[in-house]
Amino acid sequence: MINSIYNRISTRTFKNEILSKDEIKEIMSIINSMQSIKGPFGNDFDFTFSLNDDKSDQGQKIGTYGLIKNVPAFIGGVSKNTIESIIDFGFVFEHLLLLLTNKGFETCWLGGTFKRKEYREQLHDNEIIPAISPVGHRAKKRALVEIAMRKMAGAEKRLSTSITFKQYSNELPVDITLKSTINTCLELVQLGPSASNKQPWRLYVDNDVIHFYIERTN
After folding, report:
1. How are the residues of the chain apportioned to helix, strand and coil, as percentages rounded to the nearest 5?
2. Rounded distance between C-alpha atoms, residue 49 and residue 59, angstroms
3. Alpha-carbon gap, residue 170 to 33, rounded angstroms
4. What separation in angstroms does the CA of 197 have from each of 40, 52, 193, 201, 213?
5. 65 near 113, Cβ under 8 Å?
6. I want to staple 134 with a disulfide (CB 3.0 to 4.6 A). Which of 25, 44, 71, 82 is the partner?
7. What is the pTM of this model?
8. 40-65 as b/e, with b when 16 or more CB fall inside 10 Å?
9. What is the pLDDT of residues 177-204, one digit of tens each?
10. Residue 213 forms beta bridges with which residues?
11. How far apart are alpha carbons 113 and 132 in whole angstroms?
């Protein structure tokens, strides 16, 4: 899992080819293995897989406003519209995407750039679709729109850890160069994906307890 965190990047330009039957079987096996995984607040999720076409029984065409190219398939899920369930969705869905990364598949969190009604038309009361992800293999060359988006977001850059991680007692920066289990975890958090690469997490280290906060933007 740690290697997957280091290796995974958001992919928006996929190879223009379909997934093989064996690849679909492997993806489905990973999805099925996640059905019993619960988030920190005890919620689990029924994730779905669909080929990105409207011709096959397994297929479903989902619009992404031209921001994702040559998508062979999508994975998605539905959450209750509560803060605890949404946090659990993020926890479990990221776990799923990292397992796919480990098997050589590429993914990309989509929270606001897909047409929700094309993924799921009917929702029960108090249900939302927090995110979906394309799944496939990265193209050798990125589309111009992906190059532009990564440049605008500064996708390769990360905020200084002196901003994101502080000591709970005095708000001084945490020295993550010191070897410890907690510092390893902090380094992995720093690599996580976030909308427009805003990196809104602010963590306060209180011995072996970590307090999580969010720094919202306008």
Report:
1. 30, 20, 50
2. 9
3. 43
4. 24, 26, 7, 11, 17
5. yes
6. 71
7. 0.86
8. eeebebebebbbbeeeeeeebebebe
9. 889 999 999 999 999 888 888 899 999 9
10. 202
11. 10
User: Residue 84 is which amino acid?
Assistant: E
As to burial, measured by CB atoms within 10 angstroms (0-12 exposed, 13-18 middle, 19+ buried), residue 74 is buried
- Statement: residue 153 has pLDDT above 90: no
Whole-angstrom Cα Rg for the chain: 18
Q: Which amino acid is at 111?
A: G
Residue 17, CA atoms < 13 Å, CB-side half-sphere: 9
pLDDT of residue 58: 67
Amino acid at 137: H
Contacts of residue 51, defined as CB under 8 A and 6 or more positions apart, other chains included, come to 18, 19, 24, 58, 59, 60, 72, 73
User: What's the rounded Cα separation, in Å, for the pair 167 and 64?
Assistant: 41
CA dist list (Å): 29 to 7, 17, 94, 115, 202:
21, 21, 16, 26, 35
Calculate ∠ Cα 173-176-180, nearest 5°.
Answer: 130
CB-based contact 62:115 (threshold 8 Å):
yes
Tokens of 122: 């009917």
